[in-house]
Amino acid sequence: MMRWWPGKPQGLSSTATSPWAAAFSWPCHGASPLSSTQHPPRYYGCGLVIPECLSSCRILDLGSGSGRDCYLLSQLVGEQGHVTGIDMTEGQVWHRPGPPLHPPSSPPTSFSSSCQVEVAKKHIAYHMEKFGYRKPNVEFFHGYMEKLGDAGLSDESYDIVISNCVINLAPDKGAVLREAFRVLKPGGEMYFSDVYASQRLSETIQQHRVLWGECLGGALYWRDLYSIAEEVGFSPPCLVTASPITIGDKELEDIIGDCRFVSATFRLFKVPAGSWARPAQVIYNGGIVGHERELVFDANFTFKEGEVVDVDAEMAAILQSSRFAEKFLIRAGGAAALQGCCCKGAKVSRGQLHGWVKELRPECPMPSE
């Protein structure tokens, strides 16, 4: 994974591209943003990557950086939950005169002495005291997300794996998903945000130092995500949100040509064999903190408390086998859904994200396959 990640320089107020600029709102999980941390101003994600129903969960954060997401999650899972952060960066500020850029094939000449994992560890005691925990429920490791075993992370040990705009930096994205699948418990979820491309990237784009640093040069062709997920054993990806990325730089636009990029959040589930295998009707019982009356699960399904929703076999299996099971009544389908069903229309398939991005940015037509 360590090809090139000097990080965005502190004090940079604008960038050539906008994968970090997509609007997002603070998710309602019963906790407000942590306001008085002692962290330096370093945060490089695509927004907040925080799923629902987290109480007492064990969560792994791939590419945890200085630990901000981990500390927020450590509050949300509660004292009985646990959060592990793993990060491979040696530092995110590259010290040399001039622009902090270098080709992906060239190693940095000098990194700041404090690696991100050490930065994160410094604040464990502070946050545990702030949350009123008797013992730490968060830990950090230096390692590679393609080789979680090297960091001592065992099979089927986590309920949720999250990742915030770092998988694009991994040369072998299949290895990342395989490792995530390995460490997830049956019924576990991978919930992650990243940058995707409308086509497979040329070598020129992949090797461009600015595009790589802006998380575009390593973007996965979005259809390949579906193929990799299927190969690894995950359920088909559930698209949560997607926003087009604006380049805003003529020189870079000339380099990328007709390729388009999108920042998207997906959820994948490790559905065990023998799970529900037929369409069903489900009723949300409510009660998830911050989503008591309505749960927006993905782009296809919104569940309102007490209302019947027809779901396909894949969604039924996800709900029946995951941490959401106790929040739903699931019964065999066949009858028409009651009035007030909140299914948002036809399912977003692997072939429709392509059209969705085109709809989001109609002035930039996406190429046909």
TrEMBL record:
Native species: Cyanistes caeruleus
Protein name according to UniProt: Arsenite methyltransferase
PANTHER family linked: ARSENITE METHYLTRANSFERASE
GO cellular-component term (any): cytosol
Domain of life: Eukaryota
Domain Methyltransferase: 55-91, 116-233
Recorded family membership: Belongs to the methyltransferase superfamily. Arsenite methyltransferase family.
Catalytic activity line of the entry: arsenic triglutathione + [thioredoxin]-dithiol + S-adenosyl-L-methionine + 2 H2O = methylarsonous acid + [thioredoxin]-disulfide + 3 glutathione + S-adenosyl-L-homocysteine + H(+); arsenic triglutathione + 2 [thioredoxin]-dithiol + 2 S-adenosyl-L-methionine + H2O = dimethylarsinous acid + 2 [thioredoxin]-disulfide + 3 glutathione + 2 S-adenosyl-L-homocysteine + 2 H(+); arsenic triglutathione + 3 [thioredoxin]-dithiol + 3 S-adenosyl-L-methionine = trimethylarsine + 3 [thioredoxin]-disulfide + 3 glutathione + 3 S-adenosyl-L-homocysteine + 3 H(+)
Entry's EC annotation: 2.1.1.137
GO process terms (BP): arsonoacetate metabolic process; toxin metabolic process
Enzyme class: transferase
Gene Ontology MF terms: arsenite methyltransferase activity
Keyword terms: S-adenosyl-L-methionine, Transferase
